[in-house]
Fold this sequence. Notes:
Layout: H1 2-6, E1 24-31, H2 50-58, H3 72-79, E2 85-90, E3 95-99, H4 103-111, E4 115-123, E5 139-140, H5 170-174, H6 178-183, E6 192-197, H7 210-214, E7 218-223, H8 237-246, E8 248-249, E9 253-254, E10 261-266, H9 276-291, E11 295-298, H10 323-333, E12 337-341, E13 365-370, E14 394-397, E15 399-404, E16 410-414, H11 416-433, H12 439-448, H13 467-487, E17 492-495, E18 504-507, E19 518-520, E20 526-529
Parallel strand pairs: 6-10, 6-11, 7-10, 11-12, 12-13, 13-14
Antiparallel strand pairs: 1-3, 1-4, 2-3, 5-16, 8-9, 15-16, 17-18, 19-20
Amino acid sequence: MQRIFTLTFLFCFSATFASAQFGYTRYIVQFTDKKGTEFSLAAPSAYLSQKAIERRTKQKLIVDSTDLPLSKIYVDSIRAIPNVTILNQSKWLNQLLIRTADPSAIAKINSFPFVKSAAQIAPVPKPTDEIISSKIEPVYDLGNEILSQVDGAQNASGIKDIQLDYGSTYNQIHIHEGEYLHNLGFTGKGITIAILDAGFQSYLTNPAFDSVRLQGRILGVWDYVSNHASVNEDHPHGSQCFSIIASNRPGIIVGSAPGASFWLFRTEDAATEFPVEEQNWIAAAEFADSAGVDMISTSLGYSIFDNSAFNHTYPQRDGNTSMITRAADLAARKGILLTVSAGNDGGRADDYKFVSSPADADSVLTVGAVTNTGLIANFSSWGPNSAGKVKPNVVSVGQGTVLANNSGNPVGGNGTSFSNPNMAGLVACLWQAFPEFTNMEIIDAVEKSSDKYNLPDGRYGHGIPNFRKAYDILSIERELRKYSAILGNDWIKPFPTPYQNNLGVIIKGQVDGLAKIQLLDASGRLFETQ
């Protein structure tokens, strides 16, 4: 679904669009402040889960004013206006999404001194079955392309070292040496991922998800488009992305993090393209944060809307402007690791060929698409023409990606929608191995492991990550941190003290060069030199 995961939209609150073509009924109401909120920064447990608080504590992040819920007085004032329905809200951006067709209600809202603006954002929703075909990334029968790992999965010494029977997904795992993490037992267990998408059709019956269902690792769902607790009947795009991470049918299809846990959120209305979907995304991301997720994987993007007045132009896709991009960076500031598809507009001739929003966000891992032989997919969106900003951050298999259809069988698909979850799952496995590192440190290690890290470009970014290398990078850093903790403020220290059979010495070099260490006993007799 190119449009679903390439859709890039920008919303500016400074404009009000009165169009006869679109009968606007949904509005964003922005507040000036949070005065009167009944919550306190000193008592975050009233509005954040224990896991969300622990995530902040572990990463040395503070609870700030964006974490505080909206002012109840302000919200109740809006709710009391006749013909107004509150659909969802954002505490990060201090705003409400409402529905009303009553102009007098909007006039009343704008008269409140605590309202910054009330701007239209979307018309009456279309019926759920009106799905625009151009927004669907087609999948296809793999036929003879289905290649299992067979018996050819060997390491450089010719020794078989593959513990999982990946079936048809081996190539998209192996291009990153993802099997190295899996072989060590890291399959994403203990990592919670929220997937924000257009629906998860048939996930309740799809055999690809038997393991994750039976083990209770689908922690909850919500449809932010229709405002109900079911996503099984909606668009298949989310299930396709979900299957790339979570599938577990040995010998047929195995995902990149088959041991992870999940929240499934529908935020995208596949029938239309309006910035209301950005607001839905933000509301879902905030819930995910409050619930304590570790990661968000989203194969959605926005730049071109049904009403071009909302379009996110190239200058607006700057990593700081669109509301979904600002929210993505706020989520990262809460310690969540976000992976985002770059978009499918790389073949365009205009400036919409560059990454969409929130792929432009500074603090997310933006994923472009390559084939399973490492060649860039021509549809993969370009990174911006700006010095010092690398987008996409990395690439993964998005052309010829293997995913599960509604029957749980492998089919092929093309799009950065599919490269993103493949990468998200492997990142989850890496974070499981190194839980003491922050979200940004994990992203940094993934980038440093990539084959173009020293010479990134606007198509591949830093290139194709190698998770064996990423594991080694973080292993070394873990050791360095351990030794730094022993050293403290000293530049040389023996450990452990007292020692029994073995004694180590840690030195933090003061100048470049060789050092000679001499060990003497209590009488001054030299007994060891290195």
